[in-house]
Amino acid sequence: MEPAFVEANGVKFGYLEQGKGPLVLFVHGFPDTAYTWDRVMGAVAAEGYRCVAPFTRGYWPTEAKEPYDSDTLGADLIAIIEALGEQQAILVGHDWGASASYAAAGSRPERVKLLITLAIPHPKSLKPNPFTLWKIRHFFTLGSKSGPEKARKNNFAYIDELWHRWSPAWKDIPASEIAPVKEAFSHPGCTEAACAYYAQVKFFDRPKGHRGNIKMPAVAFAGTDDIITPRQFEKARHCYDASYEVVQVPGGHFMHREHPDEFIRELVRTLKEHAR
């Protein structure tokens, strides 16, 4: 798939698209790109949906333009929905894409029909403690001034390390899985933008879009081998005012790539049950 482009929220976004029907916006995380959704989009498009996967702010070929805070990333998603000529969308967000989706749903609930997130519980449910901070130590590495240099060193060896750390049961991750990420990060400014997502984090000042409860139906996918356990998603129930389902699937942080068939089956079921 070759990217198309759209102007939204003052940024030129590249995006991938398949299918026709109600809009499903697939939002990638770090370290990843919109190509992470290639298999998933095809399956969901076959079910009668318009599937769009943007390259998020700063990720080549999307324009790199500050700021990179979660509220801005959420506003990007709302603007993309509108720029695509739609009134509402189903959001499917992974990692930073989940953070952006929480912010979009929290700030503009009328634009989000169904919220589906992967690998990240609602941020309001996460309480800083030494164990949690150790799990997310990459925030401090990547958010430092030397973060981009660290990420690029030895052909992006740190990116390889993160994929293996976050999906520990995936013993033989093919180089082809991570190649699109390294390709994107090789373009000027992309690694700096990706690290800027981490540099803007203020652990004791939650973004506005993350402060309220989620008003629309929501589904959270939790990998059984992820460093964030399914139990932590269950503990987030108080963050939801409408229906909330936790779906456990095999795999770690990159569950949708590690076990695509199982993930796709559960995602299609979720859409049939919650989005029609």
Main attributes of the structure:
276 residues, Rossmann fold, single chain, globular, eight-stranded mixed beta sheet, alpha/beta
SSE pattern, N- to C-terminal: EEEHEHEHEHHHHHEHEHH
Average of pLDDT: 96
According to CATH, the fold-level topology is: Rossmann fold
Number of strands: 8
Radius of gyration: 17 Å
Strand order of the largest sheet: 1-2-4-3-5-6-7-8
Class based on secondary structure composition and strand pairing: alpha/beta
Q: Give the CA-based shape.
A: globular
**Major sheet: size, sense and barrel closure?**
8 strands, mixed
Distance between the termini: 27 Å
**How many structural domains in the coordinates?**
1
Strand content: 15-25%
Number of contiguous helices = 11
Name the helicity range.
40-55%
The CATH superfamily bears the name Alpha/Beta hydrolase fold, catalytic domain
CATH class: Alpha Beta
CATH architecture: 3-Layer(aba) Sandwich
Show unreliable segments. none
